[in-house]
C-alpha cells in the first residue's frame, strides 16, 4: 500500500484530507508541521508527501528540501494559497492552489504517480 506523509497544520483540513486519501487506498501518516513531518518520515519513510506550505516551526518547502537530501526523487504535492513563494523547479513536485477539494487532491496525486511511472519507464 502506498504510504503518504500528510503535513497540514489546520486540523479540519488535515482530517478531511486524511480521510479522503485513506478512502482512496493510501496509508496516511499525519504531521502538523515540517519538523513533525521530518520526524514521522524518519520513523516510517513515505512514498510521497502532501504538504501545506505555510506552517509554524518549518514550512513545507524547507521540509521537502531536507527530505530530498536523502531521497531526491520523493514525489510531493504542495497545497498552498501562496504559490508565488514555492520553488517550482524541483522534480516530481506539483503545486495545488488552496482551496482544493479532497477529490481534486486525490486526482492530482494519482496524476503525479502516473507521470513518475511514465518518466521512469524511459
Automatic annotation (TrEMBL):
4-aspartylphosphate sites (modified residues): 52
Keyword Phosphoprotein: yes
Chain ranges of the Response regulatory domain: 3-113
Coiled-coil stretches noted in the UniProt entry, renumbered to this chain: none
InterPro entries, per the entry: Bact_response_regulator (IPR050595), CheY-like_superfamily (IPR011006), Sig_transdc_resp-reg_receiver (IPR001789)
Phosphoprotein listed as a keyword: yes
SUPFAM superfamilies (alphabetical): CheY-like
Keywords, alphabetical: Phosphoprotein
Protein name: CheY-like chemotaxis protein
Native source species: Azospirillum rugosum
Amino acid at each position: 500500500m502506498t504510504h503518504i506523509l500528510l503535513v497540514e497544520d489546520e486540523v479540519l483540513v488535515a482530517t478531511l484530507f486524511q480521510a479522503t486519501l485513506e478512502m482512496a487506498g493510501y496509508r496516511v501518516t499525519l504531521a502538523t508541521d515540517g519538523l513533525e513531518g521530518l520526524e514521522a518520515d524518519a520513523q516510517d519513510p513515505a512514498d510521497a508527501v502532501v504538504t501545506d506550505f505555510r506552517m509554524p516551526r518549518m514550512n513545507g518547502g524547507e521540509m521537502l528540501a531536507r527530505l530530498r537530501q536523502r531521497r531526491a526523487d520523493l514525489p510531493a504535492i504542495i497545497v498552498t494559497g501562496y504559490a508565488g513563494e514555492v520553488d517550482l523547479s524541483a522534480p516530481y513536485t506539483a503545486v495545488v492552489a488552496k482551496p482544493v477539494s479532497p477529490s481534486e487532491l486525490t486526482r492530482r496525486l494519482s496524476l503525479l504517480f502516473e507521470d513518475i511511472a511514465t518518466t521512469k519507464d524511459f
